[in-house]
Specification:
With 471 residues, the chain is α/β, with parallel strands linked by helices. It is built from 17 helices and 17 strands. It has two domains: 217 residues, Rossmann fold; 154 residues, 3-Layer(aba) Sandwich (Rossmann fold).
């Protein structure tokens, strides 16, 4: 089928040959293996696991993964505590045996202007909450796992976690650890950013989705994080969701020696295989924010005259309706509801404008036999096309995008092949939930081994001093 970009790769050139089934880089030069498989090579089992995240409730995304890990780890017999920036309330996790504590904060964008400006740079209440909990209730064998921090907790969380950095694991669900705007994406120019974060060129670049003042605020936040917490060679392990994230994170100052690949857990939306070749609609599922590319998809679908269904909410809803008058705007849908929509779709489209690090919904769709049309800048694009499970397109070229969609709709035999290939390819693009949890346990075992000296008398004295100082 024409119109696709054969063997498309991520912007740094990391193609499908860089990984093996299970999603672990074994190229020799790149990030180390996730080492799924229980306690890891150290043989040291972690003690209590303390998960730190902005939110205690989720509709998916990074928070969904953080909370899934809490439940799965508790089911495996671990003692799990979730320290959250919000109220720390989740009845399902409590029922699963997870202890939740909350700082009582709110999303930075829901606060007043001054509170958002200052609290987003340094949330003193969140820092005090974490510091006090560690001093009063922390144990020498605890292992800490930081997930999301940019929406409530702020860079202050890194200062609060500094005393336990040897027993800390940090998850890179995005690029906020390195890039001020979190995506290595120039919003006004709609292009991937190749600048070094916080360089003179970066500071001068007007790349923010809102305005340059907002960019400078993001720069200040990044400078504060770096001033209070550095990722040195002996620092916390950083878990990446795709190997192609490595050069982006390294460009932002994270040492390659601290980077480990642990792909996201994936469960197909449904089984058996969706007969995609018999369906006539395209599906988009995700946030309706500019960087997610749904507006570009709407324009291409309108030009191609194809049926488009959009499951999601966000600020671009009105613009999408205007661009594609026949679009079905379905609002936010649960995972089960998306599974029903997937059974009626010919393909799922992931048209992200920025370098999409993973795209969980895409792999979930592939697993049930739904071909994926991905932006060529998505890190999964090369793997999808190499497997013959979908297309990679230039989402900025609306004419070419529309032509690819038209050919997809016209080629039933080609779609049937892609559908069968998708089912076969999906297991290599993500991990089963069980293998993912194995990988987390292995990372925690390594953190426990790094923090083993904390059991020494000298370290005990330091911990006692920390508790005394916190009072």
């Amino acid at each position: 089928m024409g119109g696709l970009v054969p063997g498309a790769v991520s912007p740094d050139g990391a193609g499908p040959g860089a990984t093996v089934p299970g999603g672990v880089d074994r190229s020799g030069d790149g990030p180390r293996e996730g080492l799924p498989g229980g306690p890891g090579r150290s043989g040291r089992r972690p003690g209590r696991i303390v998960i730190v995240n902005d939110f205690s409730r989720a509709r998916g995304g990074a928070t969904g993964l953080a909370l899934l890990s809490a439940r799965m780890l508790a089911e495996r017999g671990h003692e799990v505590v979730c320290l959250c920036g919000d109220a720390g309330e989740n009845a399902g996790l409590t029922a699963a045996g997870v202890t939740l504590r909350g700082a009582g904060g709110a999303h930075v964008m829901s606060r007043g202007r001054v509170s958002a400006l200052l609290g987003g740079l340094w949330n003193a209440a969140a820092a005090r909450f974490l510091r006090d909990w560690i001093a009063a209730e922390g144990r020498p064998g605890d292992v800490y796992h930081l997930h999301g921090w940019s929406k409530i907790l702020s860079p202050s969380v890194f200062a609060a976690l500094a005393p336990v950095r040897d027993r800390l694991v940090v998850h890179a669900h995005d690029f906020f650890l390195a890039c001020p705007n979190g995506g290595y994406w120039n919003y006004p120019r709609e292009e991937v950013c190749g600048l070094t974060p916080l360089s003179a060129a970066c500071l001068a670049s007007r790349c923010d989705k809102r305005n340059h003042g907002q960019k400078m605020w993001r720069v200040a936040r990044q400078l504060i994080r770096r001033a209070r917490f550095t990722f040195r060679d002996s620092g916390p392990e950083v878990l990446m969701i795709h190997p192609a994230m490595a050069p982006f994170l390294e460009r932002g100052g994270l040492p390659a020696s601290r980077l480990t690949v642990l792909r996201n857990p994936v469960t197909p939306f449904r089984a058996p295989r969706v007969a995609a070749e018999a369906n006539r609609s395209l599906l988009f599922a995700g946030r309706l924010d500019p960087e997610k590319g749904a507006l570009s998809l709407a324009r291409a679908a309108a030009r191609a005259g194809v049926r488009l269904r959009v499951a999601g909410e966000g600020p671009q809803e009105a613009a999408i309706r205007a661009a594609c008058p026949g679009v079905e705007m379905l609002g936010w849908k649960s995972r089960a509801e998306i599974g029903v929509l997937a059974a009626e779709a010919r393909a799922l489209v992931m048209p992200s404008l920025y370098p999409e690090p993973f795209g969980l919904v895409a792999v979930e769709a592939l697993g049930c036999g739904l071909p994926v049309v991905a932006a060529q800048t998505a890190f999964l694009a090369g793997e999808i096309t190499a497997a013959g499970a979908g297309l990679a397109v230039d989402v900025h070229d609306i004419g070419g995008f529309a032509a690819a969609l038209s050919r997809l709709m016209a080629d039933d035999a080609g779609v049937a092949r892609m559908s069968r290939n998708a089912v076969a390819a999906a297991p290599a693009l993500g991990l089963s939930p069980e293998a993912w949890c194995d990988g987390l346990e292995a990372a925690y075992a390594r953190a426990a081994a790094r923090g083993a000296p904390s059991d020494s008398p000298a370290a005990g004295a330091r911990a006692a001093s920390l508790r005394a100082g916190a009072g």
